[in-house]
């Protein structure tokens, strides 16, 4: 059976709108906010308003919704029908805007990773309530990084409320988003099965922004440490089911990653493409021909290296689209989501570092954005699960092993 790898025409609006924003808004201010860490990019307010206006009018590129959760019921589709919905649209939008600047993309109002978390597990009533908020996502704590099952923040039931206590670090958009999706345990004795996610307003009693981190890259994006001290939220702010199902285990809340990992892969794909396009132009100006019909050993070493990196880029791109497509079509995509994140994260760090090297002094200077992309790229191989975590998840899915059997 023939496989068509072209995007459906209906998604061209998404790609075109996002690329215009990246080229006309993000790129011109990219260096400005890289040098002004923690300064809010006010130019993004206009973009957010434009996205919302287009979305309300039904004319927006689909990615403008930012994954704010338009769930589709597969039962309503004709037999055999396929969907290119919110996940695919968000990943494509992410790719294009990250081509402009990934730190600025993470700073767009109402486009936070917490929004994808809400879309992944929220009920229809919760989507009505939280579908239009700007949500950051708070998982990591001082005592752990990629081991999400080690959450020590607690959420104790008290009547019609939950009381949250704990500290979260490296919360992307934590000081700017108006809500925070907080991972917490409702019963420490029940282990990982008791970990739930809660939507908490940022300006709320018991919520304190402790500090903003100084970082290697994505400096346009704020990264916060947040303390929750006797923070009381309504019980209905718990996303999904409040029941602790030890048989289902950690699966419910982990569905979040099946949506967000392809998005992070999309970020990496966008930055990789930006670096490759810049390198191609530099090679052409230097008189280096890239010939796809010649074997690698018969052309310039830089051209051969470019072709190698470009093939990795194509693989990362296709992995990302597949994971998003599966999510839209309600196919289990945990393995594919991790594959997309692992491949794209590894590729972006390799390509941006090698591009700086091949560009020589221009690559290391601030005359171009190459060195910035190399700094930005490292986080894309870390957050939403490191390379090692992704490989572990992939191995479990391929071998049919549980987390207890394969650590």
Automatic annotation (TrEMBL):
For whether the record's keyword set contains Phosphoprotein, the answer is: no
The record, for InterPro entries, names: Acyl-CoA_Oxase/DH_mid-dom (IPR006091), Acyl-CoA_Oxase/DH_mid-dom_sf (IPR046373), AcylCo_DH-like_C (IPR036250), AcylCo_DH/oxidase_C (IPR009075), AcylCoA_DH/ox_N_sf (IPR037069), AcylCoA_DH/oxidase_NM_dom_sf (IPR009100)
Cofactors demanded by this protein? FAD
User: Which GO molecular function terms does the record list?
Assistant: acyl-CoA dehydrogenase activity; flavin adenine dinucleotide binding
Any idea where the Acyl-CoA dehydrogenase/oxidase C-terminal domain is? Answer: 248-399
Start and end residues of each Acyl-CoA oxidase/dehydrogenase middle domain: 136-231
What keywords would UniProt list here?
Answer: FAD, Flavoprotein, Oxidoreductase
PANTHER family, alphabetized: ACYL-COA DEHYDROGENASE, ISOVALERYL-COA DEHYDROGENASE, MITOCHONDRIAL-RELATED
* UniProt family annotation: Belongs to the acyl-CoA dehydrogenase family.
Write down what this protein is called.
Answer: Acyl-CoA dehydrogenase
């Amino acid at each position: 059976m023939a496989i068509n790898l072209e995007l459906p025409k209906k998604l061209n609006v998404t790609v075109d709108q996002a690329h215009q924003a990246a080229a006309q808004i993000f790129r011109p201010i990219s260096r400005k906010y890289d040098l002004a860490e923690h300064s809010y990019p006010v130019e993004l307010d206009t973009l957010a308003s434009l996205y919302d206006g287009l979305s309300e009018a039904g004319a927006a590129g689909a990615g403008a919704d930012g994954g704010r959760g338009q769930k589709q019921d597969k039962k309503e589709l004709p037999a055999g029908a396929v969907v290119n919905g919110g996940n695919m649209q968000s990943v494509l939008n992410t790719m294009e805007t990250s081509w402009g600047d990934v730190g600025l993309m993470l700073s767009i109002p109402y486009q936070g990773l917490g929004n994808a978390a809400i879309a992944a597990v929220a009920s229809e009533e919760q989507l009505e309530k939280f579908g239009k908020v700007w949500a950051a996502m708070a998982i990591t704590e001082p005592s752990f990084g990629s081991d999400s099952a080690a959450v020590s923040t607690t959420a104790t039931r008290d009547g019609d409320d939950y009381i949250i206590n704990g500290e979260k670090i490296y919360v992307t958009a934590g000081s700017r988003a108006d809500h925070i999706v907080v991972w917490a345990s409702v019963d420490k004795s029940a282990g990982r099965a008791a970990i739930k996610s809660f939507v908490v307003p940022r300006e709320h009693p018991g919520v304190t922004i402790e500090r903003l981190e100084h970082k290697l890259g994505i400096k346009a994006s704020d990264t916060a440490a947040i303390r929750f001290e006797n923070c009381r939220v309504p019980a209905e702010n718990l996303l999904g089911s409040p029941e602790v199902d030890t048989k289902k285990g950690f699966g419910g809340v982990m569905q979040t990653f099946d949506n967000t990992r392809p998005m992070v892969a999309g970020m990496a794909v966008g930055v990789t493409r930006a670096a490759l396009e810049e390198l191609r132009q530099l090679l052409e100006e230097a008189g280096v021909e890239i010939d796809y019909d010649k074997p690698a050993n018969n052309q310039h070493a830089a051209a051969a290296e470019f072709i190698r990196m470009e093939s990795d880029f194509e693989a990362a791109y296709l992995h990302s689209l597949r994971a998003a497509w599966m999510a839209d079509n309600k196919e289990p995509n945990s393995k594919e989501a991790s594959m997309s994140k692992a491949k794209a994260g590894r590729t972006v760090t390799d390509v941006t570092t090698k591009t700086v090297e091949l560009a020589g002094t221009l690559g290391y200077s601030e005359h171009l954005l190459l060195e910035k992309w190399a700094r930005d790229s490292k986080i894309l191989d870390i957050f939403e699960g490191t390379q090692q975590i992704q490989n572990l998840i992939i191995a479990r899915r391929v071998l049919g092993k549980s987390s207890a059997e394969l650590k």
